[in-house]
């Protein structure tokens, strides 16, 4: 510890950008599994929508008076006000899981960040967006995240694939790194061989499920093409459900293709679904599909594994790192390959049962308790310097 420290040790967790989805899920699980004997007081900068555990004496929320819901206002606050807060708290560690360290840290304070977003580091995927906001945003995120990772005393990676990409980009200039994949909430893991009750709004027919934002790199167009080919190979009664929010331009292309292939009654675009309903959707699917070309930690893939249903996954990295031999891999750019593999496996009930069992077993590698404990251990090493 630094000798000038007058009080206890202090960690400031800047979770102001965790306003929905995976960002909030991560922070909630991280704090729920904060060790009882963690040797530091943890202060949390977070929106009111993020619930904090109420049974932790060493955990306290700090509210910001600025309107930091706006990313620009938040960036200005972090630049001007965050250093003052760190000095007032005499903080030992600043942890920014959102991926960007928005200010300088005072002398004696260590900085930790996490690499979450792979798209800004994929030139191919960045080019798929036309000139405009999204391409400019990804270019800027590339610069900001790279600078933050090089500034940090510790960078937490979610996959070895992501770690390799960034280590090559920074040419060995990162100070310290660790790989800690995300976990799975217990509600997602199929228990006692029984599926969660099927939501009443789902179609009465069986269905194939693909959960992901409708976006270029998620390859919904190719999945729909594969589905159309599959219907020509077999009597396919199952619907194809596309679950998730959408990037407007790509969503239009998806709808145009559905109309062109006359699949309006077979391919259903459901949109975003409450997180609490997701386990039942995965578990009641005939099979789950994940066709993404670019991921850091594929949370949807590991949630699908936990459902104990057969999974067909993109063969792009890092998916094999997470799913091992528990899934059927396909090239997301080759619809005919996916169609053929779907037809072959669907015709083999024993293979379907084997894939379901392997998926559930593989999912046991991913546990929020373990992920959180590893994260707090890595931070504690910095606290104890």
Mind explaining what this structure looks like?
The protein has 385 residues and is an alpha/beta fold. Strand 11, helix 10 and strand 12 form a beta-alpha-beta unit. 41% of the residues are buried. A 7-stranded parallel β-sheet has the order 3-2-1-4-5-6-7, with helices on both faces. A 6-stranded parallel β-sheet has the order 10-9-8-11-12-13, with helices on both faces. The N terminus is likely disordered. Helix 7 packs parallel to helix 8, helix 7 packs across helix 12 and helix 10 crosses helix 13. It has 14 helices and 13 strands.
Explain briefly what this protein structure is.
This protein has helices at 21-32, 71-80, 82-89, 123-127, 133-151, 160-170, 220-233, 248-260, 278-283, 299-306, 319-323, 335-346, 349-363, 368-383; strands at residues 10-14, 41-45, 59-62, 93-96, 110-115, 154-157, 177-179, 207-211, 239-243, 267-271, 287-290, 311-314, 328-330. It has 385 residues and is an alpha/beta fold.
List the helices and strands and how they pair.
Blueprint: E1 10-14, H1 21-32, E2 41-45, E3 59-62, H2 71-80, H3 82-89, E4 93-96, E5 110-115, H4 123-127, H5 133-151, E6 154-157, H6 160-170, E7 177-179, E8 207-211, H7 220-233, E9 239-243, H8 248-260, E10 267-271, H9 278-283, E11 287-290, H10 299-306, E12 311-314, H11 319-323, E13 328-330, H12 335-346, H13 349-363, H14 368-383
Parallel strand pairs: 1-2, 1-4, 2-3, 4-5, 5-6, 6-7, 8-9, 8-11, 9-10, 11-12, 12-13
Helix pairs in contact: 7-8, 7-12, 10-13
